[in-house]
Amino acid sequence: MLSKILIKNYILIDELELDFAQGLNIITGETGAGKSILINAIDIAFGAKAGKEVIKGDADKAIIELTILNKKQDLSQIFEDNGIDNCGDEIILSREITKTGSRSRINGCLVNQDFMRHFRELFIDVHSQHQTYSFLQPKYHILLLDAYAKNTCGEILEKYRKDYLSYKDLIAKLETLRNSAEKTAEQIDFLRFQVNEIDEAQIKSSNEDEELNKELAVLENVEKLKDLTGSSYWTLSGDDGAVMDALLQIKMNLSKASGMDSSLEEQENQLIDVIENLKDISTSLREYSSSLENDEEQINQIQERLFLLDKLKRKYGGSLENVIKQGEILRQELENIEFSTQNIEELEAKIANEKNKLEVLAEEISEKRKNYAQVLSGLIVEKLEKLELPKVRFEIHFEKSELSINGIDKVEFLISTNISEGLKPLAKVASGGEISRVMLAIKTIFAQSDNIETVIFDEIDTGISGKTSQAVADEVKELAKYMQIIMITHQAIIASKSDRHLYVKKTQNDKTSVHISVLEGNDKLKAVAELAGGEITDESLKFAKTLIN
After folding, report:
1. Rounded to whole angstroms, how far apart are CA atoms 417 and 414?
2. Distance (Å, rounded) from C-alpha 148 to C-alpha 161?
3. Judgement on whether residues 6 and 99 belong to the same structural domain of the protein
4. For position 241, what pLDDT does the model report?
5. Could you tell me if 478 and 382 are in contact, meaning their C-beta atoms sit under 8 angstroms apart?
6. pLDDT digits (tens, 9 = 90+) for 185-219
7. Whole-structure pTM over 0.90, yes or no?
8. Quick check: 76 and 86 in contact, CB under 8 A?
């Protein structure tokens, strides 16, 4: 449930902090006072679109923060998977909106808006006049029925949907194979030529060309390298006057000198190390110089190899790495073609078999749905009769369809609110007030099994009055036993049932501002009286007392 909201610099609100109650939270105020601002702020905190225009006045940013007390959802895995700190039952949602963008956080950890909107589905259900009409579209009816039947249909429906997605994957694979099989013989021959061309090159690695260029540079400069390394060797270790001879003479001198002065031993040892290193270098230079030979045949082979590799690079992507990757792609495409011509019939048979299995499952699900549809229809009629629709008829209509993610059923809610009229689609028959009552009836039926902890009603009582208002008030109060309700209303009878009454007032002095306060005692009585009579009089106060008591 929503425990608290903090709002700063949002539209007409400078700063606001409100606590919500467990049961029925009623929001009232004069028309145009800004009652929906609070509902919109909650919606935005949960990821709804919000631009810089919601920032109040000259402020740099708007901030909306919600505190949620989580009593039903196990979020440990969701939090772990998304790197969100788990702070127990209390969850802090925040949305910061600047002139260049916005950021959302859960428990201080940044999350994207898609995740926040998914998170919203776990905690709140918002119903406005507009959203209620969407709720009545036929495509949602099967989802409502399945939600009601989830204890019986949930497991088999989950298996069906998993198998259906696998079935669709097989169909997609078959389509790919068929497309491959339709390639012309010339296309196949060219594809085979490309694969063979790359395979026959036997590319050793993605950097083979670089290694070959290094080897070629050596072979093309053999004489220079031989001269340079050979002369270096002779300078070090050649005839009289070579560097090694001079160093050996210096070593002998230092050896004698260190016998006279031990402080020279370190220099002698260092020189010995230098001589040993130079001996190794000298040997390496001699061996390297001796190994160098003019090999025109090897040069020609490398140049031919590089020519081949350059041709492949020009044709298949500019680098040997791309040539190798393209070879894998072309080889897979060729294998698919060869596979497709041999296995299309086998895959078609498998798809037909999977379809038969799905149809059996779908028929079973359909039967279970129809049984639950009768029960749900009866409960909805019972609730609607209590909501002052005494002659109502309500049925859940089934029509068989092609296999889909939901099975073989097309489901639509049908209603007749007048005894002289036949059943028609709900969205085409019901008035605004009737639609609100149907939605309220369904929500009340689902309340005890629903994991949603908070339902928000934004002026869904429009178009009702009198006994109907009393019936709706009783039903909303009953619903508030099972979940938190936040409701904007213009009905005194409904407002009188509140566990917490929030009053919205707009002031226009130097600037326009919206203020929201919690009403208790006489203040609540006056607000209900104002709703009942349009103004506060002795008569409206007396009536308000009868409603509250």
Report:
1. 10
2. 18
3. yes
4. 60
5. no
6. 677 788 889 999 999 988 888 888 888 888 888 88
7. no
8. yes
